[in-house]
Amino acid sequence: MANTSSKPAFSLRALLRDERFWQIAFQVILVIVVAAVFSYLFGNLNRNMSRSGIQFGFSFFKNPASFAIGEDLLSYSAQDSYTKAIQTGIVNSLRLVAASVITATIVGVAAGVASFSDNWLLQKISRVYVGLVRNVPLLLQLFFWYFAVFLAAPRKENQIVFPSPNSPWLVISNNNVNTVGPGLPDEVWVGMMLLALSMLLFGLLWRSLTAFREGRFAAGLAGWFSRIGNAVMIAFVLLANYYLLFSNSAEDRLFFKGALIALFTNAAGLWIVALAVMTAVGITLWRLRTKAMLERGQEGKVYLAGLIAIALLAVVIVLLAFDWTVPTLVEGGGATGGLEMSVRYAAALTGLTFYTGAFIAEIVRAGIQSVSRGQWEAARSVGLSNGKAMQLVVFPQSLRVIIPPLNSEFANLAKNSSLAFAVGYPDLYAVANTTFNQTGRPIEVFLVMMATYLSLNLLISLNMNQLNNAVQFKER
Amino acid sequence: MTTVSSRPIERGAPRVQSIGPVAWSRKHLFNSWFNSILTIVLGLTLGAALFNLLSWAFIQANWSVVADNFGNFMSGLYPPESYWRIWSVLGIIMGLSGLTWGLLARNQPQLFSRNVLIGLGAIALFFILWPLTRPHTPYLIGVLVLLAVAAAAGQAIGRKAPGSTKWILAAWLVSYFVDLYLLGGGPFFGRGTLSPSLFYSIIVMLGGGIVAGWQLSQRISIPQIPTWISKIVLFLVGFIVVYQVLWRLPYALGLDVGLKNVSTNSWGGLTLTLLLAISGIALCFPAGVLLALGRRSKLPIVQAFSVAYIELIRGVPLISILFMGQVLIPLFLPEGVRPDRVVRAIIGLTIFSAAYLAENVRAGLQAVPLGQSEAAQSLGLNKPLTTALIVLPQALKTAIPAIVGQFISLFQDTTLLGIVGLVELLGISQNLLASPTYLGDYKEGYVFIAAIYWVFCYAMSYGSRRIESALNTDLR
């Protein structure tokens, strides 16, 4: 593009032929068009809102919500404010997402691995499951589980008790599902979720701190943007974690007890803290062991013994300290105790689990297929069985193909959890919808809802990216 | 050292061992004690489940909800006396599909191969044997015959006039508006305050105006004025004159043609589902491609807009966007302007799917080697042409499976409109199943529509696999 430098005289023809002119002109036009569209839309919004006498603002969230929420972990009552209602919805959504991430991963990995089984029947069952579930809409499946399975269960007078009334390990009626489980108080469950959330946030903190420590920023303006972004991220994470860990439910904006406060004021919670510490120690030991084995050629038996001791201790704690209870049957129908779920929660959980599980199964299958056949053959030739070859050689290698799509699948799961409101589960979307219907303030409610889902997704995808970096090839 | 073999060495390919069923099941089902147990347990469970399923489907299930309301499932509350309009829409679609098929397959020696004939025969047999479609057999068989005849005609046309393939897209575009008019009815021409039908205003008025203006600007040249100005002026003159004439002439002549108006509130069932899905797909595809190109663009502002849009939309659940579409779109428009709710639904679906499709297309774009565009540029193609002729076709070819996957999920996502008030297939089922007549018939209703969804989704993914293998020229 030497034409402009050699000819200082201005020429329209040269300008029109200059690619750079068109690039800039195009972008300027784009900005003008977008700005015009936005100003038109927001001008309309402004007029529409002022005509109906609404002032944009979030202060109405302090008003009493005066609607009931079917199930909650924050002891919400109808006199409480909209803020508390929304937070109850968020906790309900988190509770559903957290549980279904775990169950869907288990189902999906099992089905994905099963499609490589040398048992023909198992292989075909896995394929049929995936082919059937992936091609039917999730909402329909949720309706099916709720209306056709759980609501069709007998009433609580003649509920299903499995295996026998003397040992009711699983009790199903069209109202509740009770099963053997740890009988922890609500506060501790919430505390555990918040702890997990703050761990994910610490993952982000770690990312930003590493960026500063290693100082790998691009030169120029972009680098400074990135520096500012990371600094803001650190500040935000520290603030959010402060609230997640130490918030006190006495405040009038946050209505949950911070994770550490909730856990340290409960006996079972203390054991959970102990488990978390032990997990950290275990991971450190594992790293030390790997280091000792790789760098010093030791066998690392001491570390192994430590790891085994920690694992045993953890099992003992889980079994003894968590108040595992069997449901007790109530005279005249119903059951209490154990792990209690409403049928709405159970339907949403089952539907999300099987639907997402089918997608995860496909992801796992594609990942395993991507490992070259030579790896299988090499593993078999050193004497590993089919199962061991999968477990020790093939599956770990397939992780680097599996994790990126798994990331978006978890994000999809978090978004799909909003469909649980269709079966009556009071998640964030359901609460937001009711709030909007009562107050007639769609913009503010929509902003709150969108911000929550966006940050949840961001949290999931950034942490999964970290995980992805950890399993990629370490190329020198 | 020589090894002496008593057997002569065999030449040629290894012998294929034919294994009997016993040996086969030994190898695939009972090759170890673990697998044997697994096979037995799975076989028994599967057998019991199949037995229960069949006995439910043929003995216990009460299929009257499906049998009595077949028309509702297919077309919602559409007035039965106007069913002929839906039949004609189906006829148009099948006729065009046949023509397209024939035109595209014009070079194949045999259009109706054995498999195609078997498939068509099986579908026809299904229509005849299934009690629910039996009353409509003449129409259905007629539509199938139309498909076959149109395919043969299309092949004949394609062989005589190979250039006719480029009209396929235009024909589909026109047929879309014809179908919309057939479904919705209303006055064909505008009268007084009534606006003309979409078909007339878009295809005839707009299209006629553009063609007239274009022809005028091509054929006439005015001396003494720069050509580009004269072309624009002539185009505008031709366009405005023809547009105005077409708009006012029918009214002046007193033409009053039109079908009975069927408001979108009466659209429903499978018809509405397909309309929503097809409109969404047709709109989100170009939008997604543009967004993907924008995201890959080197222009910073274009890229920033695309990234912001894609990430924002991908971070929130679809249901919240549909909610926005139903509630917020009227707020952002001037007072009194309130698009039809089907239109709002299509807008919501498009906004959502375009972001996901953009990511799929971006993956395809990334897979095209840089050498391709460098080669194109060295041949003298400019940037837009390089993208349109070289990069995009290859990117789309790579991205076909992902794109079709996105179309499938868009098709499934139309179910969410059932919970914002449209009576598409799932919505109408919810309404029917809520009526006291069919109390507790949830399973029957859901299984029926699940089968419909499954057939469509499976057909789409089967089609995508066929296209993929037909276009996969690398491995030949």
TrEMBL record, chain A:
One MF annotation (Gene Ontology) recorded for this entry: transmembrane transporter activity
Membrane-related topology note: Multi-pass membrane protein
One Gene Ontology term, aspect cellular component: ATP-binding cassette (ABC) transporter complex
PROSITE patterns (UniProt xref): ABC_TM1 (PS50928)
Coiled-coil portions: none
Alphabetic keyword roster: Amino-acid transport, Cell membrane, Membrane, Transmembrane, Transmembrane helix, Transport
Annotated signal sequence range: none
UniProt cross-references to NCBIfam families, sorted A to Z: HEQRo_perm_3TM (TIGR01726)
The protein's name: Amino acid ABC transporter permease
Organism name: Phormidesmis priestleyi
